Amino acid sequence: MSQACGYQHAFIAGRSLADLEMKLLHVMKKLRLCNVKYVHSWAEEFILPIQYLRGTAEKDFDPAILMDLSPTGTVDNESEHFRQVYGHLGRLVLAVYFKDDDLALHSIQGLDLVLKDSDASFIIQSVHLCFSSLAYSTIYRNRRKRSYLNKSRRCLRQLQGICRIKGTVCWHRCVLMEAHLEAAKGRHLTSIPVAFDHAIEEASRNGYDHDAALGSQLAAEYCVSVMQRIQRNSEQYTAMDALLRRYLQQAIDLYQSWGAIALIDHLKSKYRSLLIDATTVADS
Questions:
Q1: pLDDT in tens, 172-188
Q2: Cβ atoms of 255 and 210 closer than 8 Å
Q3: Alpha-carbon distance 257 to 109, whole Å?
């Protein structure tokens, strides 16, 4: 399973999604020819988030279908363990990127079960805790149940503790988790965009541009949540609108470099009016 860990590390480190998909498809082709089904099963789960982010999956992103097809069964060998871990982890990542609360909760529950009695690697722990925290914070903002905020904090504290012991290579994710947690509380504070900017800068400085893109995306969502509560045409609204446009364009540019084309299309569709306005202003 060392090869699986290598691909996982490359994905989390933000390597080109196109290159990763090409290499994985080559491996899967060889596995099919050799009839190595038990390894092929984890590879299918691992490639799933890559293809949905790139837009090369056979079907459009559908949270309900992904939940129905989540890996289940008795974990009685290493291959099945990896299949379930990668299956739930990939769905959690997609739930955060495409912002789907139900898929996020379903995936976290599956991960908690399969990782409960195992000694997960630092890479898997960092993704599990980071994306769980981000999901919980978003769900708290949408549903206002205090328990989700507490769960987000718990994940943050756990990853901070792990980073202090095993190294600060993922510390920028802790900074992002903290910024998003504060943003989810719904307060309009000048310190929150500053916190997101710090997280984005830390990610970029350490070579994690895809995490900087995610930070920009979450910062844009925060701007939208604030703009929904303040008066249009006010100075505050204008300032927040400018921030939103900056974060959104930054996310799109960074995701473009990563190769997350389907995610870019999702953001462009979601913020279509803003992007049209920005283009009109630039051309005038």
A1: 999 999 999 999 998 88
A2: yes
A3: 32
Which contacts of 3-8 are long-range, i.e. CB under 8 A and separated by 24 or more positions? 3/27, 4/42, 4/43, 4/46, 4/82, 4/86, 5/121, 5/123, 7/46, 8/46, 8/86, 8/123, 8/124
At residue 37 the predicted structure's pLDDT band, cuts being 50, 70 and 90, is low
Q: Where are the domains of the chain?
A: 186-284
d(CA 95, CA 101): 7
pTM of the predicted structure, to 2 decimals: 0.92
Q: How far apart are CA 259 and CA 55, in angstroms?
A: 10
17/263 Cα distance (integer angstroms): 12
Q: How far apart are CA 55 and CA 211, in angstroms?
A: 19
Cβ–Cβ < 8 Å for 71, 83: yes
Quick check: helix, strand or coil at residue 64?
A: helix
Residue 15: pLDDT over 80: yes
Q: How far is CA 162 from CA 10, 128, 181, 215, 270, in A?
A: 20, 12, 19, 21, 36
C-alpha span between 83 and 229 (Å, rounded): 43
How far is the C-alpha of 183 from the C-alpha of 161, rounded, in Å? 22
First to last CA, the chain: 56
